Amino acid sequence: MIFDATVLGRTLRVEVRGSDGHYSVNVDGETHEVSVSDVAHGFTRLRIGAHGHELGLEREGSGYRVSFPGDSLSVELAEVARGSAVPARRDHGPARLTAPMPGRIVRVLSEVGADVVAGQGLVVIEAMKMENELRAPRGGRLLELLAREGQAVEAGALLAVVA
Q: I need a surface site. Which of 90, 115, 120, 131 has the fewest CB within 10 A?
């Protein structure tokens, strides 16, 4: 599949070939071998050549917000490519927010019963001396908030439920 992706104001032509988590990705004429696997809800392990990365991936407008330690950026996809570049997220039923890695809850940013929008910060977790804001996976009402400030959590621990 071929599509245009806009990152930091620059539009790139991207061609993706492959399946089952193994792809050949050509970005503006430069080809990379890429493998992709899910780590936890909203987090993906991406290997580009010999380099591995764990990234957060959440739907945002006509593209995605890509989060990595210490920063994040938006990737806008051309209308013709949106559905084919990354599998569409389900927006029905409760959405679970889980800890992407072991860490300690340093701030809780909302409360049970609050209406939240997709991408709204819910919890801040500290892991490997870095603080990461974990955001609502979708809009709705915050049904459960299991995270408590100062609490140690393991990777995959349920922190919140939005419906």
A: 90
